Amino acid sequence: MDDIVHCDLLVIGSGFAGLWAAIAARDGGLEKVAIVDKGAVGLSSMSRMSAGATVYCLPRFDPERWMKAFIRAQGYLSRQDMLEEIIGTSHSRLRSLEAWGVEYQRNPLTRSYLTLPSRGLDHVRMMVLPRWRDRTGGTAVVSALLAQVRKRGIARYGKIIIAGLLCGGGRVCGAVGIDRLTGKPVTFRARAVILAAADCSFRGHYACVEGVTGDAFKLAYDAGVRLSNMEFLAVNTGPPRYGFEGTGIAARCGARFLDGSGKAFMRAHHAGGDKAEICYLVQAMADAAEGGSGPPFYLDMSRLPGRWIIRKALLSIGGWMPLNIAKLREMGEDIFTSPQEWGPAVQSLRGGVRAGADCMSDLPGLFAAGTSLSVDPGLFNGWSSMLAMWSGEKAGREAARFVRDSGDTVIERENVERMRKDVLAPSRPGAGTTPDVVCRRLQEAVFPYLICILKREDRLQAALQEVERIRDEDVPSLRAPVPHELVKAHETVGMVLAAELFLRASLERRESRGDHLRQDHPRRDNAHWLQWVNLSKGGGGEPRVELERVPLSRYPMQPAPGGE
Amino acid sequence: MITRVDPQRCTGCGTCQEVCPLDVLRLDGKEKKAVIRYPEDCQTCFVCELECPAGAITVGPFRKERPRIMD
Known about the structure:
By secondary structure, chain A is an alpha/beta fold. In chain A, about 35% of the residues lie in helices and about 20% in strands.
């Protein structure tokens, strides 16, 4: 087995979490750290597409108030042990980034950081508009991290999708991937692995999420570890015809959501009106649809006194958004002068790997970071970036410690050969179903708003039945004659699993909380549901469901007795 | 969606093939030029256009349709 890449640590994924994990592990003393990504390392990641807005708790802010805001907004399902550390150490990561050349926007006169409120979180503020050299937004932060990765001589393997983890001796010991250009399998032997390959969007409607296909969830599940919070699917809002990032900024500046008859309608559904948390905006659209006043819905940015401010803010976000807006204008679409069609947009499954406070999963040596890790069920402005940076650094450091303290791994030739054969299975000759067809069927099962926003037992059961049919009939018939299709086949299998886990967890949680809204159980039920729904691979091919009580007595914050 | 790679400007450096998150672009082995091999998979993220050192790539702002959440 000469063609095996040997390393101490393999990091799968290269957004904020993966890059930071590799840096922390190298600085923690590991000689051989490798990053693998199905795109280019760093430059194809979701972090790169983001605006880079991040929550850092500066010394002048009160961490306790921020904790309270997060925990309340996350419905008391937060991992408070992690959250305390995320907030408490966030300023040190800001200092690291600044030492590496990243600059956040400051007031030119006072030099104090420009911060914006994070929607739905009292007191919490996020820092915006990062720059690094000539780059802005998430691209700037990723580029700065990538420069540090290069400086440390960390090995980088782009265009390889990891399709399976190698396990042996009760721990993880490597991975098998597919080279996207050649279609050939690639094997890694590693003493520890960090999953930092995002979550699952089901190739949804939100901007730039096509490649977020549940890859890490599938790897973790097949390795036998637990996943948590899979019932929480974040549905954001956006225009159906083009990508858009920054609806929150626009709404904060006074943009209004309109229903099919052109009337503002959010206030009637939620006290926060157009500035309410994302999940409530989307649930208001679903209610309006039930009442027959939409779709279509619109976002009106045309009648604002501060219109130029929005335009300036969005044009400063960096990355792809300014180019997008300029191109729309060239084609005669000035989104700031007329109401734009807007609607719910599936963005990301908020669940992830259930890990200890050290980010290690149930399987020794297997860690999770970024949105592959489950910390809480919520989606807030600047939160995913904060979480990704913390968990990347934490997992990298802890993985370095694990490798130092544990012996070497051995991978067995038989296991490797079997997995190599398995990952190539969809490319065998013969007729079958294409990944695009299976993906479309899956989207048609999951995307209807009566499944993904307004849930009810009978509808969830019917959707689960269809997803199980896809799993049992369509997935085995997947055919991929070229490497491009082979990668898509593996992504499709990841999405099918994520859909099944989403529906099963949604059926299990018989109450409503945050993004999880059950029409047949419309109230939050703290008496019974301050519990996490954990899913893992069970016998007979069906996922095993386990309820785990949130250890609130050990946590600093509890809900008020009898309160919601 | 990606609309064009200008063969006059393309230097065949392979940057677009490397950075495209969805593997839409490939470098043609014979011609040593980038080609749009899988246009239907473009997610309109503009990464190829932004990273192309020769300014050879054009991406239009409109995206492909996805199954809607509400009809």
